[in-house]
Every structure is written in structure tokens, then in C-alpha cells.
């Protein structure tokens, strides 16, 4: 009998065609082997983080059910490959690390596993600091725990504003 993991990934884009980019990312995830796209959160319009001089993002979280053949690092590799196929080019300028992007796909949680491998840190190292990830994660998994603390508690510790489908922080 195969073992399966509940995995959460965040999707984001602030390209001129952001909604379509999220759709293409969801399609790409659904087409990966031994993986099922189980659910997606609503799409939120979110303020940029760490590099403010750029357009707002569209963000959502996707829940995947993955076969045990997937491991956190192999999944991160697949997510990076999807980003490249969808036109993501990473800037070599460290100042633009959090700059504009056609698509961003981050592994947030991989079951209850954790990884300290620099290539695939799980839980995502900034998950508990980002309302744009926690709000849609809670839409899908209201009782989810992150490092032994509920995601709702992590969110309550942040200074952010939510107005309908808009999140600023």
C-alpha cells in the first residue's frame, strides 16, 4: 500500500497576466506524476514584501496529495522546473531577490515532515511571517499546525490587514 502526504504550496505572480500564470501553474502541478491537485484556496491580491516598488501580487495556496516517492527536495526541484517552464528568470541582483516575478511556487509544508536542507527548507522559513501565505493556507486547512503551533496563532501574531480578497502587511 502506498503512503501519501498532504502538501501545501504557494503560488504567486505579479506579472501583467498574473491570473493566467496561476492557472498555468495549477495545470502544471496537476500534471506531475504521482500527484493530485486536491484543492486550491481563493486568489488574493497581496502587497509586495521586502521589495515594495513593484505591482501587487496575486497569491493562492494549493493542496497536493503526493505519493511517498516524492520527497521535499525532489518536489522543490520539480517546482523550480515548473517555474522555469512558465518563464521565471531569477535575477542575479540580490536586491531583487523579492522583486517582480512571472511565477513563484514555494513548498510550504510537506505532511508533518521538516527539512533543514538549505535547498528545501520545510516548513518554508518565512511561512509564519507572511499573511499572504497563512490566510489562504487557513482557507484550506483551518486546523493546520506549523512547528507545533496552529497556523491561526501564527497569523494572529502578524500585523496585516485583510479587506475581502486583499491582504496588506
Automatic annotation (TrEMBL):
GO terms in the biological process aspect are:
folic acid biosynthetic process; tetrahydrofolate biosynthetic process
- Residues of the 7,8-dihydro-6-hydroxymethylpterin-pyrophosphokinase domain: 97-108
Q: Which SUPFAM superfamilies match?
A: 6-hydroxymethyl-7,8-dihydropterin pyrophosphokinase, HPPK
Statement: the UniProt record of this protein carries the keyword Kinase: yes
Please provide the record's keywords in A-Z order: ATP-binding, Folate biosynthesis, Kinase, Nucleotide-binding, Transferase
Which EC number(s) does UniProt give? 2.7.6.3
Methyltransferase in keyword set: no
List, alphabetically, the InterPro entries matched: Hppk (IPR000550), Hppk_sf (IPR035907)
EC top class, in one word?
transferase
The metabolic or biological pathway listed in the UniProt record of this protein is:
Cofactor biosynthesis; tetrahydrofolate biosynthesis; 2-amino-4-hydroxy-6-hydroxymethyl-7,8-dihydropteridine diphosphate from 7,8-dihydroneopterin triphosphate: step 4/4
Please name one Pfam family that this protein belongs to. HPPK
Mind listing the GO molecular function terms for this protein?
2-amino-4-hydroxy-6-hydroxymethyldihydropteridine diphosphokinase activity; ATP binding; kinase activity
- CDD domains given in the database record: HPPK
Function of the molecule: Catalyzes the transfer of pyrophosphate from adenosine triphosphate (ATP) to 6-hydroxymethyl-7,8-dihydropterin, an enzymatic step in folate biosynthesis pathway.
Its family? Belongs to the HPPK family.
Instruction: Tell me the protein's name.
Output: 2-amino-4-hydroxy-6-hydroxymethyldihydropteridine pyrophosphokinase
Q: Which organism is it from?
A: Desulfovibrio intestinalis
Amino acid at each position: 500500500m502506498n503512503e501519501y502526504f498532504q502538501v501545501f504550496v504557494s503560488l504567486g505572480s505579479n506579472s501583467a497576466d498574473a491570473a493566467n500564470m496561476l492557472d498555468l501553474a495549477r495545470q502544471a502541478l496537476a500534471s506531475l506524476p504521482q500527484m493530485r491537485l486536491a484543492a486550491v484556496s481563493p486568489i488574493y491580491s497581496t502587497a509586495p514584501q521586502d521589495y515594495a516598488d513593484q505591482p501587487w501580487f496575486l497569491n493562492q495556496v494549493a493542496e497536493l496529495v503526493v505519493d511517498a516517492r516524492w520527497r521535499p527536495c525532489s518536489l522543490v526541484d520539480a517546482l523550480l522546473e515548473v517555474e522555469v517552464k512558465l518563464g521565471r528568470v531569477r535575477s542575479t541582483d540580490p536586491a531583487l531577490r523579492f522583486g517582480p516575478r512571472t511565477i513563484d511556487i514555494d513548498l510550504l509544508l510537506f505532511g508533518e515532515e521538516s527539512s533543514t536542507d538549505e535547498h528545501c527548507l520545510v516548513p518554508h522559513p518565512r511561512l509564519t511571517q507572511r499573511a499572504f501565505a497563512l490566510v489562504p493556507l487557513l482557507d484550506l486547512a483551518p486546523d493546520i499546525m506549523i512547528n507545533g503551533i496552529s497556523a491561526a496563532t501564527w497569523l494572529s501574531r502578524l500585523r496585516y490587514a485583510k479587506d475581502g480578497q486583499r491582504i496588506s502587511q
